[in-house]
């Protein structure tokens, strides 16, 4: 993650409307729109929220966040990484309007993070835990979308937790779902998965986004199965409101329940959404900057401000929480997008689709949206990721696996907490092992031991230093050298001086070299860049 937040995008607003930029941005916005439309609907479906809310969030993420953000290529909208949190939160808070209050407060929290310049917050979460969190979300996404892919009419997965309130668990509920499938839905979802996997492998075909192909074939599939034994029911199709007038359109919006603003449950959900959404945004932003052909650096603090405004707006109107999303952002880059006009235009296209083609959208089977989310879940929890983390060593692999198990088996917040605890354990163990190195020299019957302390010696190193000193044999000359040390913790200094004072009783002569009586905490020698 970057500490510098200067967006090297130069020039005024006119640069966005240069012919060379519009020539790239407008076609790119169409590609991003075609990718975003099924994802907005699918994520709303997975979150247990109205499908209209998914489209509304995509519109706000494109138009509002796109206009404020300093990133030229990042695209915001409803995120797969928040589905389990949203589903659990709506259930625990009791109604959707109370949940909207939590979304608004999450946006306020993100605004505060931006104001206090906390754009480097992602640096304080180990990558093993973040990867584990995303992999766990991917596994949950797969398990919770399987009923829709199978065409299960009843809701076997109303609870995102592994152990559900009805006495079922995820595996037993999945077994029940297998007994209530619809052949048409299975055929559509299987074909959709195959298209999503193999379509991008053909370069000439890949100019048309695979999710768009899936949606079109899903519509034709539903028509084909109509009137047969595999016919899809109305409950197995997308259902968004058909707007016939301005009053009907504005009637779709939903205000949050302001009376719940101080509810501890609402505040907890808001904090959870704020932290996870901010982390996912910052990670996505970093990934997009890496693949930006112009190698521009996006301002992270400004992005937090933009996301905060976006989530406040979304919560006030009835939408879902949003983040910067790597799937849509990478589609934007690959389609040749150059400036934020692409993201803004994609949001406007989502709005136009809601206003003018809702009947066409309602012809999309839920099973093909589920297929898109199944593939998205696999990308988050792909087998190669587990192999990669294993090759990085046990200190990375174990926190990763523990986080995955915690997120899947308990819940997201506790899973991340357990993963952080395990990661901290390995960090402390590594810290305690590297406070010094020593060399033993023998002169006749006398041994000389030189102990060279590390650059930073913290209180965490005290125990290992004391163990080493306690094992030094009698009648030994000991030199403790602090020439390399910029900082030695007072507790460690006290242990060293106490050892020197008491060592003579064992015939041990202790010499201290380049060790001061006290040390001040070293200051960072970095140039601070204004992060706007």
* Cα gyration radius (Å): 28 Å
**How far apart, in Å, are the first and last alpha carbons?**
16 Å
Q: What is the overall silhouette?
A: elongated
Strand content: 5-15%
Total helical elements: 20
How many strand segments? 8
Largest sheet: 4 strands, mixed
Model regions low in confidence, pLDDT < 50 over at least 5 residues: 1-11, 154-161, 526-532
Order of helices and strands: HHEHHHHHHHHHEHHHHHHHEEEHEEHE
Strands side by side in the biggest sheet: 3-4-6-8
Fraction of residues in H or I helices: 55-70%
**Global mean pLDDT:** 83
Features:
532 residues; alpha/beta; 4-stranded mixed β-sheet; two-stranded antiparallel sheet; 58% helix; disordered N terminus
Strand and helix layout:
Elements: H1 19-47, H2 51-68, E1 76-78, H3 83-93, H4 96-115, H5 127-150, H6 170-177, H7 183-198, H8 210-225, H9 246-250, H10 264-291, H11 300-317, E2 322-324, H12 326-334, H13 341-356, H14 358-361, H15 366-380, H16 383-391, H17 394-409, H18 412-433, E3 436-443, E4 446-453, E5 456-457, H19 462-470, E6 476-481, E7 487-488, H20 490-502, E8 509-513
Parallel strand pairs: 4-6, 5-7, 6-8
Antiparallel strand pairs: 1-2, 3-4
Task: Give an account of the 3D structure.
By secondary structure, this protein is α/β, with parallel strands linked by helices. It has 20 helices and eight strands. It has a four-stranded mixed β-sheet, with no helix packed on it. The chain has a two-stranded antiparallel ribbon with strand order 1-2. Strands 5-7 form a two-stranded parallel ribbon. The longest helix is centred in the first third of the chain and has 29 residues, at 19-47. It is elongated, with a radius of gyration of 28 Å.
């Amino acid at each position: 993650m970057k500490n510098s937040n200067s967006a090297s995008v130069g020039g005024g607003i006119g640069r966005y409307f240069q012919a060379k930029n519009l020539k790239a941005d407008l076609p790119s916005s169409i590609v991003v729109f075609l990718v975003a439309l099924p994802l907005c609907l699918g994520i709303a479906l997975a979150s247990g929220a109205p499908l209209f809310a998914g489209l509304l969030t995509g519109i706000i993420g494109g138009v509002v966040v796109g206009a404020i953000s300093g990133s030229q290529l990042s695209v915001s909208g409803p995120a797969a990484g928040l589905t389990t949190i949203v589903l659990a939160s709506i259930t625990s808070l009791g109604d959707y309007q109370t949940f909207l209050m939590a979304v608004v407060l999450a946006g306020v929290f993100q605004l505060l993070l931006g104001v206090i310049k906390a754009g480097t917050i992602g640096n304080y979460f180990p990558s093993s835990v973040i990867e584990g969190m995303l992999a766990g979300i991917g596994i949950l996404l797969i398990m919770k979308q399987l009923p829709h892919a199978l065409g299960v009419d009843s809701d076997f997965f109303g609870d995102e937790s592994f152990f559900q309130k009805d006495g079922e668990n995820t595996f037993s509920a999945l077994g029940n779902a297998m007994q209530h499938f619809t052949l048409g839905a299975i055929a559509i979802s299987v074909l959709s998965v195959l298209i999503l996997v193999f379509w991008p492998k053909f370069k000439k075909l890949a100019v048309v986004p695979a999710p768009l192909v899936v949606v079109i074939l899903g519509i034709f599939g539903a028509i084909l199965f109509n009137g047969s034994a595999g016919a899809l029911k109305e409950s197995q199709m997308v259902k968004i409101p058909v707007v016939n007038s301005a009053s009907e359109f504005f009637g779709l919006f939903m205000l949050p329940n302001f009376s719940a603003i101080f509810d501890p449950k609402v505040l907890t959900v808001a904090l959870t959404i704020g932290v996870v959404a901010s982390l996912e945004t910052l990670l996505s932003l970093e990934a997009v900057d890496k693949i930006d052909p112009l190698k521009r650096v996006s301002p992270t603090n400004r992005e937090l401000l933009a996301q905060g405004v976006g989530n406040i707006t979304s919560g006030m109107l009835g939408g879902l929480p949003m983040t910067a999303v790597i799937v849509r952002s990478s589609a934007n880059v690959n389609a040749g997008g150059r400036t934020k006009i692409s993201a803004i235009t994609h949001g406007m296209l989502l709005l136009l689709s809601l206003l003018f083609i809702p009947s066409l959208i309602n012809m999309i089977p839920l099973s093909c949206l589920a297929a898109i989310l199944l593939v998205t879940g696999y990308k988050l929890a792909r087998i190669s990721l587990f192999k990669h983390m294993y090759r990085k060593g046990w200190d990375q692999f174990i926190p990763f696996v523990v986080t995955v198990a915690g997120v899947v088996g308990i819940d997201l917040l506790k899973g991340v907490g357990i993963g952080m605890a395990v990661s901290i354990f390995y960090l402390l163990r590594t810290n305690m092992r590297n406070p010094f190195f020593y060399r033993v020299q023998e002169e006749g019957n006398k041994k000389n031991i030189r102990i060279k302390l590390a650059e930073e010696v913290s209180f965490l190193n005290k125990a290992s230093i004391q163990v080493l000193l306690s094992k030094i044999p009698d009648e030994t000359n000991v030199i403790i050298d602090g020439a390399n040390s910029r900082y030695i913790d007072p507790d460690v200094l006290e242990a060293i001086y106490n050892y020197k004072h008491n060592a003579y009783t064992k015939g041990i002569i202790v010499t201290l070299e380049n060790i001061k009586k006290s040390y001040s905490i070293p200051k960072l020698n970095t140039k601070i860049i204004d992060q706007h």
